[in-house]
Amino acid sequence: MSKKLKKKSVKNWSCEEVKDWLVGEGFTQYSKTLCDTHKIDGQVLLSLTENDLKQPPLQLSVLGDIKRLMIRINTLHARTPASENELSSCNDNSSEDDVFTGTQDFITQKKNVHLSQYLDSEILKTVLSFVYVFTVFLFTSFVMVIVHERVPDVEKYPPLPDIFLDNVPFIPWAFQATEIIGMALGATWFTILFFHKHRFILMRRMFSLLGTLFLLRSVCMLITSLSVPSKHLACEKKSYGDMRAKLGRAFEIWSGLGMTSTGVRTCGDYMFSGHTVVLTMLNFFITEYTPRKLYYLHTCSWMANMFGVFLILAAHEHYSIDVFVAFYLTSRLFLYYHTLANNRSLMERDKGRRRFWFPLFSFFESKCDGVVPNEYEWPIPRLIENVKSIFGTATPLKPKRK
Q: Residue 99: CB partners within 8 Å, gap ≥ 6?
């Protein structure tokens, strides 16, 4: 390898520099195919897998050359800084049992994980995802009004037996503490979102996942009305009268984000816990879209999530089953969504069925073909550029005067 290439980060190699490296390593016969035809630069080189070399469009035929080339690429991984190698190293195919393990070892996928080569902000899709979650939150608020009118009488239907609630004493300040934890996680996530280079993709994923979960929550609340979980809760059946009054109350719940700290008090919306959904979703997004080296941030995020769940139960605001189902559904939906989004082969397999069962996913992720890298930037210039591109107001730069 030349001194020039040694001094330069592999990630920043151009196609010509990759070509020089291939020639220097004895792969001259493949340099034209890889670099001239398929435009393999340094970042793409680090993301190559053994399957990429074996399968179309590269389809190298000599097994020995494939193995030797992968050994050289793995050597490049070894000399690449961890911060640059974080996502590309997931494609190491040194054995058939290799897997990609996402943040905190919760996302485990097959080895065909690729860095996305096409990352379009698609701001209009992000706006549509916001409209989706906005509409779902309004609908959920209206459903919360309906279920308040159907709250079972505490005298006739006492609290159900619950292993946790029956053995943990009521803590008056616990629910308020939960909401403070949620606001801290929210502030952390929005800070990450502000500086993340691919913030619009992240927002689109967050909106679509939250909208789907709260839509499911609305259905669960409507189907079955559970009895009040604790006698300390002053929850009684209440009629709001005509449709206008119901809509007014729904707007109050929506504008207060359903939080007791904003003065909103609801009853009957037990299955499943919306607070747990938000805490868990924020935790998973924080740990997924920050570098792995931020170990203490990830640990604090998980501790906040677990303490928040415990405090919800300690406040006796929900049954244990409400919290368990909320955590399970949120975590599974997040993991399944990202498993499909990060694995190109799963995206391409049986597209018709995927569009039928996951229409929102198919629409929002149609132009993301792999893992979204954790890259950061000062956002203001990029935001201005994106807004101009939407409204077609971008003008070519004038040449500088000599």
A: 108, 109, 110, 111
2-16 per-residue burial string, b: 16 or more CB within 10 A, e: under 16: eeebeeeebbebebe
Catalytic (active-site) positions? 275, 318, 322
Closest by Cα among 391, 394, 355 to 124: 391
Question: How would you write the pLDDT of the chain (402 residues) with one tens digit per residue?
Answer: 666 677 788 888 888 888 888 888 888 998 888 998 888 988 888 889 888 888 888 888 888 888 889 888 888 877 666 545 544 444 444 333 333 334 434 333 434 445 665 677 889 999 999 999 999 999 999 999 999 999 998 889 999 999 999 999 999 999 999 999 999 999 999 999 999 999 999 999 999 999 999 999 999 999 999 999 988 888 888 888 889 999 999 999 999 989 988 989 899 999 999 999 999 999 999 999 999 999 999 999 999 999 999 999 999 999 999 999 999 999 999 999 998 888 865 566 667 777 777 888 888 888 887 788 898 888 877 666 666 666 655 444 444 444
For residues 27 and 2, is the Cβ–Cβ distance under 8 A? no
CA–CA gap between residue 28 and residue 205 (Å, rounded): 42
Based on its alpha-carbon atoms, the radius of gyration of the chain, rounded to whole angstroms, reads 26
C-beta separation of 90 from 371 below 8 A: yes
Q: What's the token pair of residue 398?
A: 């004038």
Decide: pTM greater than 0.85: no
Q: Which amino acid is at 358?
A: F
Which tokens hold the place of 300? 């604090």
